[in-house]
Amino acid sequence: MTAESMDELVALAKRRGFLYQASELYGGLQGIYDYGPLGVELKNNLKAAWWRSMVYERDDVEGLDCSILTNPKVLRYSGHEDTFTDPLQDCRACKSRWRADHIEDGRCPNCGSDDLTEPRPFNLMFRTAVGPIDDGSSFAYLRPETAQSIFTNFRNVLDSTSRKPPFGIAQIGKAFRNEITPRNFIFRVREFEQMELEFFVEAGTDEEWHERWVQERMAWWTQQGVSPAHLSLYHHPAEDLSHYSKATVDIMYRFPHGVEELEGIANRSDFDLGSHTRNQDDLDIHAKVMPNPDSSVRLAVHDQQAKRWSVPWVIEPSAGVDRGVLAVLNEGYRVEQLDNGGQRTVLALKAHLAPIKAAVIPLKRNHEGLVARARAIKAELQRLGLGRILFENTGNIGKAYRRHDEVGTPMCITIDFRTIEEDDTVTIRDRDSMAQERVSVAELGDRLRGMLAASDSASTMTAADDGA
Ligand code: GAP
Q1: In terms of Cα–Cα distance, which of 242, 284, 291, 267 is closest to 77?
Q2: Which atom of ligand 1 lies nearest, measured to the CA of 264?
Q3: pTM for the whole thing?
Q4: What is the CA(194)–ligand 1 centre distance, in A?
Q5: For residue 90, what are the contacts with CB-CB under 8 A and spacing of at least 6?
């Protein structure tokens, strides 16, 4: 079961502190959101799961964290200055602006007028002045994708790690696009995060690696709790491909507003490394790149045996963090009818994604012995480094269970008089089945560890030396 509408998710997200409209008290800023106390945990957990599977569980990927402000030349040679545009149309009647491909029947979606301007390209990059003088000559772009800084650091990573293709470089970070019509909550926003891997391979092995990464990424999303029934693949027709792409496959997800792209997996050919390379003349570059007299390096690898330089090809799985958050929120959301006639809202997130891993709740609010024992158990569990453990001193167990169901806490731990007076056991309550069980405090760490390990089992694909 998923949410029936985006409104349900928006309401839950605001009520429980997952997401807020940015600058809300001044009327907001369109297409920009802030993550609240639970949202930041969920988002960090999703990013950590990606990083674990990409960098730690493999032996052929290095990580990077690069700057957002980007020298315009990077985005000139990448092709973004010329081609990173959406077709824009203005409505002459109500002055609203639209992406031409979002307009149906040639009529303004706001007022219905057919008095629209011809579509014209609108560049999506944000730019900002750098340094104290704002004369238009000294500016930088806010990066529109994290990918470019991976390419421009290719030589640095090669030199400092002695890697050879096939290998990858991973990065998670913010990207900015001046979307003409941001919409659908955090689905299409102007400031967002990407999780991108640029995987460098030898020419000729690209198609096999591309297929492999599509399978790997589908498996990863299902590991995050996304039902395979809600995922599908979309193969871009040749005429719609981006300027750098030989082939692109999108992982599509059934969002509450419709089936749309969650992640794109592109075969970027040798375009990027080729286009940022100085003196390309003696290199056998497949992609059409413009001459580059500005770069200071050659982004190629030297084959000692063949005594030649070659430019690696790139397979790029590129996922949106915010779209991922929206997908796992939607997947986990359900409203259940209870036997007693009541209802409960549950966020059945995978445990490794849950913002709070366990809530420790004393049966009575002001009872010194119960509160002290609960605090000690919380501190002990927190030290295990498994994520956020919450001490919850509300004194109403039923309400606490409901609240934690709704924010996805997989385990509640109740401390009662038997705990402190008899046998140091507690009640643990499972979010999904609502089953309760008595376990000793000494066992709690293993229980939590087991729950998280089962939730985030190892990735299906291992290192490059498995052979492509
Ligand atoms: N480096 C390749 C690249 O950026 P993309 O398809 O433009 O490719 C990759 O973006 C992913 O980034 C998308 O699949 C989507 O998840 C996310 N994304 C792109 N634009 C977005 C936006 N305006 N708001 C939220 N997420 C976005």
Answers
A1: 291
A2: 14
A3: 0.95
A4: 7
A5: 96, 97, 98, 116, 117
